[in-house]
Amino acid sequence: MCTLTFIPYLNGSVIITSNRDEDPSRPTSSNLQLKQHKNLEALLPVDQIAGGSWIACAQNGQIHCLLNGAFEQHKYDPPYQKSRGIVLLDSLHYASLQRFRTNYNFEGIQPFTLVGLNMVKHTLEEVRYTGKYTTCKKINPSKSHIWSAAQLYAPDAIRFRESLFQEFTQHSPEPSPDELLNFHKQSNLTDPDKGFVINRDEKVKTVSITQVLGSDQILKMKYTDLEAKAQNSAELNFNSQY
């Protein structure tokens, strides 16, 4: 839930790739799961503590991804009323993130950024919750984008990563899924905090990379467990009439 890229293609398909930076001792399912959440089928890697996820795609054509923090670092102040991974699953039921922002109860939830792509309506949105207020904006789905978690990355690191991504997309405007995975596996030997794969004294490290390829009514997800050095993939058909 800490680095996210979005790549659109001229044929209408997209690739979303997410690095998860987490305490490596936190248990997570090693396999992707199809899960029913309030009668909506979703495909996701599952956090075994709270039962939610940092990335999921659903049968209604939604692909949502969570990042830690809103605009800046916040004080960790538990207990929280609900896991942000469950908030992500709840958000899949809304026709847009604007409706989610308007109707959802955010009280007692840790700050986050949520990015949502609607494959049916071809819209891309971003909601940020600071712990006090929410913001929502539409994002151009015809351009490439990158997000870094405000809780874990300082502004200079975020800008550095944005420059690397811009350089990458200039050289490869329509990269393959494997090229994107390799980009997300980069570390920075000069300044490890600015790399895409990090390890902060085994307390917080990049534990997995999840990639979603969205095309005509099919969502393909690949999960790479960097700790177990294992990969698995699954598919979910989405219904444009859902």
Question: How would you describe this structure to a colleague?
Answer:
There is one protein chain. The chain has 242 residues and is of the alpha+beta class. The protein has a single domain, classed as 4-Layer Sandwich (Penicillin V Acylase, Chain A). The protein has helices spanning 84-91, 97-103, 155-171, 177-184, and strands at 3-8, 14-22, 33-37, 40-44, 55-58, 62-68, 112-118, 123-129, 134-139, 145-148, 199-200, 204-215, 218-225, 230-237. The strands form 2 sheets. Strands 1, 2, 10, 11, 12, 13 and 14 form a 7-stranded antiparallel sheet that branches. It has a 7-stranded antiparallel sheet with strand order 3-4-5-6-7-8-9, with helices on one face. The longest helix has 17 residues, at 155-171. The mean pLDDT is 94.
